[in-house]
Amino acid sequence: MDFVxxxxxxxxxxxxxxxxxxxxxxxxxxxxxxxxxxILLVIGLVTVLFLVWxxxxxxxxxxxxxxxxxxxxxxxxxxxxxxxxxxxKEDITPAGADRIVYNLAPALATxxxxxxxxxxxxxxxxxxxxxxxxxxxxxxxxxxxTMAILMAGWSSNNKYALLGGFRVVAQLLSYEIPxxxxxxxxxxxxxxxxxxxxxxxQSPLPYVVFTPLAFLIYLLASLAEVGRVPxxxxxxxxxxxxxxxxxxxxxxxxxxxxxxxxxxxxVSIIAVTLFLGGWRGPLVDRFPVLGVFYLGIKVFVLLFAMxxxxxxxxxxxxxxxxxxxWKVLVPVAxxxxxxxAVAVKLPGGLWAQAAFALAGNVITLLVTLGLLGRAARRFxxxxxxxxxxxx
Amino acid sequence: xxxxxxxxxxxxxxxxxxxxxxxxxxxxxxLFLVLSFFGVAGxxxxxEAEFLGVAQVLIYVGAISILIIFAIMLSRGxxxxxxSVLNAQWAxxxxxxxxxxxxxxxxxxxxxxxxxxxxxxxDAIAELGxxxxxxxVIPFEVASVLLVVALIGAIIIARERES
Lengths: 391, 163
Fold this sequence. Notes:
The complex is a heterodimer. By secondary structure, chain A is an all-alpha fold. Chain A has 14 helices and two strands. Chain A has one domain. Chain A has helices at 2-5, 7-20, 25-62, 78-87, 99-115, 134-155, 159-190, 195-200, 207-210, 212-226, 251-275, 290-312, 318-344, 350-382, and strands spanning 121-123, 126-127. In chain A, a hairpin with a 2-residue loop joins strand 1 (121-123) and strand 2 (126-127). The N and C termini of chain A lie far apart (59 Å). By secondary structure, chain B is mainly alpha-helical. Chain B has two domains: 1-99, Four Helix Bundle (Hemerythrin (Met), subunit A), CATH 1.20.120.1200; 120-163. Chain B has six helices and no strands. Chain B has helices spanning 2-22, 26-46, 50-73, 90-110, 124-133, 137-158. In chain B, helix 1 (2-22) packs antiparallel against helix 2 (26-46) and helix 2 (26-46) runs antiparallel to helix 3 (50-73). The longest helix of chain B has 24 residues, at 50-73. Classes of the chains: A mainly alpha, B mainly alpha. Chains A and B meet through helix 6 and helix 7 of A and helix 2 and helix 3 of B.
């Protein structure tokens, strides 16, 4: 029972002890790294299989239809069938495309998505690489993804792909700033950039209680970074004919698709780690293996919410998206950072700081919504229509 | 082990740098530049300056390379490969470059570089943060003001003329 209570860490220790009897220490470390990388890769890819099915089912139910239910029980193998279909498609390279860059772009996009998995804490001592700059590492790899998409748009030798690529870069760069500011307020609260330290510092209260506004900003900004609804102008089938991945067919298209879903999964895990307490939950200090389970539940709730957005929200235009990022999210994120910075230095103890930060956040949110409402009313009046009166 | 890793990363950086100046296609040159940025980030990490390494990736690869690529894409005629990468004065420049190389080699071998034997502090990034607001607060604030001025200048230059 004691072994099972910290199952994964104990398994790792037993395996390392077994290997150390026969091999040199550096070889044991190398083999362990390879095994951990493979496990993380497999987790990422298998979760994407499940995630695609989940999203299709949820969106289908919102639209009052059954969703995939033919291939396998409840349609669970539908994604496998899709993957086989994409594998057997003809692999076209457009004439005049830059071959090396064209083939490198999907690989780079998936690379930057998968590398993010290295600093995520899955349990109390269960993390692949506990960098003390974990949060900065996450942000840096997000910016590599921007590069990959720009390469894809350019090398397709297609002006629509290029336009789509420009728009993608504009969107991703604009939404990086509120995302970093929201993460910075969490780093201020925790006093460390290491993801494991951030989870451990959320001891009585998760940080969503301190700064619900930062959680909201992070969620919206990361939705835009990943390219999900309502910010999915980048790959909208009906506009700009899917933008940067129009010239990609078969497995290369599948790579972009894969990169998007892996990013969605990882961004949910990051949001849970930074704001919702990560692997924290009741009885986790006595049975650390429950940490993975709690993380899974919280991540599932967030993924469900994202699929919910996809089924119900229309998408933004590019200028509305940019306006939202620069005129709304950046000022609100800055004000939030200021409030958190003041709250951290308050003398009253944890609960006083939490109360101050929460009050500041609520006031900021109400002021922002009021200003947005007034701006919307002025815009509607200028256009000659009146907004419906809510009773 | 460490010298081997250093040689590998330095080779990657140098291949990237050579690719930048000899590539015929300007976009490929920008991508080689990105490769050499990654190499420099790797060298920072072997020197146990992880913050600098990750900041290098974030700033150079994530922002500056994209700026360079935008500038390349928005200029005309880059699809045409330049006729030859050398111009008429290549002999004089080659002699100058070799002299510079000889000078640098002599300098690097002659000087007694002071080497710190201690390991990097485990809390390096906290030390960095403390230094920013303690000893080096004035350069920090001046750099921030400079960035704000640059931002406002960029907005004014790129603003649509109200006619």
